[in-house]
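Q: Convert this sequence to structure tokens.
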Amino acid sequence: MTKAPIHSIETSDEAGVRYLHFGSEWVQGAMRIARPWALELEYTRELMLALALRPDADWPKQVLQIGLGAASVTKFLYRHRPQCVQTIVEINPLVPRVGHQLFKLPHDEDRIKIEIADGIAWMAESKKRFDLIVVDGYDHNARFGGLGNESFYRDCRARLSKQGLLALNLFGRSRGYAKQTTNLENAFSGRILALPANDEGNAIAFAAAGEAILLEMVALKEECDRLARETGIGWGESTTRLARAISIRSQKSF
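A:
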């Protein structure tokens, strides 16, 4: 049986935004109360750059999320990718309850399947394949723990489909950020794209398996603009960080 963390779960409301906390001041998720389907935090929007990297309108069909948080990505994909089925692996059984009660997480077991389990063990044991895996799992002190190990990343790679993409929030101010990036590169044979950290310290990285992803910034910018019109997502400085990450690569695909 999975042992849930012993930290508390709190919410706070400020200036029309509801925040999720795990027993500390660290923000684990947020929702603008008047716009519950929108992505309030910049790093969650950057995770959705995955949709520009794999621009097929029917992608992804199978999504795995390690860590539910305030359900921001879950709700965004639920609304804007109705063809996809999402599996959420969350270690704390209280988090989905808070999501339903306070963060507008839909009750739809056909499209949102929640499993209470340790993400590392679940990934090692699963035989399922996913088009998109999103890893955003931190403890109450914003520590990544075993979710940053090379063995975990190798298990993620094994669970990706031919068009599979892994999207991670590495939290660039963490002391383990460089080690996490090295582990990711080793697990995916260098097929990664790591964005610079934003002002809050979140650093988003992507890793690919199967079909290569072309890194042509003009086409990516056009796709980002299309997604903005389609979903209302505001990219802010995210496309600038994407361009910077691409510019330092010697190869124009990954």
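The beta strands are 10-14, 17-21, 27-32, 62-66, 85-90, 112-116, 130-135, 160-169, 192-194, 204-208.
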